[in-house]
Design goal:
about 140 residues, mainly beta, 2 domains, eight-stranded antiparallel β-barrel, 2 helices
C-alpha cells in the first residue's frame, strides 16, 4: 500500500510505503499527518477523556446532513458511535463534553446545542470547514 502527494507551493513531496495491510493507520493518514508537520501546520493530537452514559446519551439521534443523507448517533455499552447513510458504524472518542474524534482518522466533530436545536459539525478528513447536520429525531 502506498500514498503520495506533492505540494508545489511548498515544494514538498511526501510518499509513504507500507508492506502491511494490517495497520489501522494506512499510508493516506500517515502521509497527511507527516505533510502537515513538514509545512508547519500539524493536525491536533486529540486526547480521550471519560464521559458517563448520560453525557453521551443526550446526543443520540438522527442528524440530517442533506435530503438523502443522515448520520445516526447511538450509545452502546457506554460508547458513542456514528453511522452515515451507506457507511459503517464507527466508534467516536470524546475530547470534551461536546467534541469527539475517530482513532486512525483526521475526522472529528462537535455537537452544538443552541436555541433548542442540536446539531453536529463534522470536520471530514481534518477539513477546516464543517459539514452541518441537524438533529431531526431521537435515536431509532
Amino acid at each position: 500500500m502506498t500514498d503520495a502527494f506533492y505540494l508545489p507551493e511548498e515544494d514538498l513531496f511526501v510518499a509513504v510505503f507500507s508492506n502491511s495491510t494490517g495497520s489501522l493507520a494506512g499510508p493516506n493518514l500517515v502521509a497527511g499527518k507527516r505533510g502537515a508537520i513538514a509545512v508547519g501546520d500539524p493536525y491536533p493530537v486529540w486526547k480521550e477523556i471519560a464521559l458517563d452514559v448520560a453525557a453521551l446519551q443526550r446526543f443520540a439521534g438522527v442528524y440530517q446532513i442533506d435530503e438523502n443523507t443522515e448520520r445516526v448517533v447511538t450509545v452502546e455499552d457506554g460508547q458513542l458511535y456514528t453511522q452515515r447513510t451507506g457507511g459503517g458504524k464507527n466508534r467516536a472518542y470524546p475530547t470534551s463534553e461536546t467534541h469527539f474524534f475517530y482513532k486512525h482518522s483526521l475526522s472529528h466533530f462537535e455537537f452544538v446545542i443552541e436555541d433548542g436545536e442540536t446539531y453536529m459539525l463534522m470536520y471530514q478528513g481534518g477539513a477546516d470547514e464543517a459539514e452541518r447536520a441537524v438533529k431531526v429525531s431521537d435515536a431509532p
